[in-house]
Amino acid sequence: MPKAKAANIDIAYMQKPSQFDPKLIAHCRHLVLVDYQHIPTAVAMATALHQIAPIARIVTQTEAAQLVAGHLTDLLGLPGTTERTARLLHDKSAMRALLNEHDIGPVPCIANPSRTQLREFVAAHGPAVIKPTMGSGSLGVRRITSLDEIDDVWAWCQAVELGDFLVEKCLVGPECSVEAFSVGGRHRIVAVTAKETDGGSVEIGHAIPAPIADTELGQVRDLTVRLLDAVGLTDGPSHTELILTADGPRIVESHTRRGGDQINELVRLVYGIDLEEATYRLVDPGDPLPDPLPPARGAAVIRFLTAPPGVVTSVSGMEAAKSIQGVVNVVVQVEPGATVSELRWSDDRCGHVIVHAEDLDTALDLAREAARHVVITTEPVADGVGATTAVETLSAILRPYDEVLDPFRVSAEIH
Hints:
By secondary structure, this protein is an alpha+beta fold. The protein contains 14 helices and 17 strands. Helix 2 crosses helix 3.
């Protein structure tokens, strides 16, 4: 919000009461505390605000609000990301169908299969990935490595109440993301981020710039631009995740926002560009990014902190980590008494360290060193609190965040 204010624009802020930070009041001209994922409420409030003071653009930096922002943009006839574009990227089944139809890095997939169809898909294509059609942060993502796992995975789908889901052939290779910014349909690649998952679905680190050969980098850039053209993105940031397979790069998912996981900060450290601030500056004519884009200044790395599931008994080493040359920030999000869950999605991580150094190898080494200094000790709990055996539904995991995956479906069900 301060970045929006710095762009010298008046802000009308719509947020859920449960997620509102009172510190933002000073930055707002209008403030509306409502459930913006309840579509009739969002429409009524946005229409009223537009009548009071005409809205120039509707901007959101979160995944949860993308569909609503696109819907309101269309409703008020404003420039920006349309509901069609937002839905094509938010709905993974819709995006994969579009990519396969236009031969943009096609990937075998099937939506909402029966257990028999799931077994047939794995038999035909080998290891697969199952994921909710809408979601982010790797929530509800699970791999199927063999036919022997089908029954267990199917039972898990029912237990977590996965809802609509997509099954895709498992893509193998290094992972990266493309941080781009579009103005008037012109897409510029600002940065390419390397990702580390340690063999799982949840990312444990990011690095900019990604160590990718020029030939492969050109393929990544081309595939990303073809995707953004196909979904009709015209203005604003995008974050596109890819896997560099033996058959060439393949898109995993994409979003009409800047990357999460502090990727925006990594971009700022290396290239001096704040994609979040640039988004707000779209209200002015012209391109908010410099032309040409600046070259990289060293490398930046984020490494996430994790701990065994259980109750936190102690946290130590933060000051030692901060004292390491090149460390920009150390954040620990848990304290003694907090419960650490098993690593199901991004929000189950315990914090992070960020490093900026003169080259990528140095930055990676320093980030690992800083992360090793931070020790989060936990104690397993036998009575179920903090235990790893309980399976929560996706809606239960999202409940503390007051978030639903598909606000249009929820609003229709209410009415």
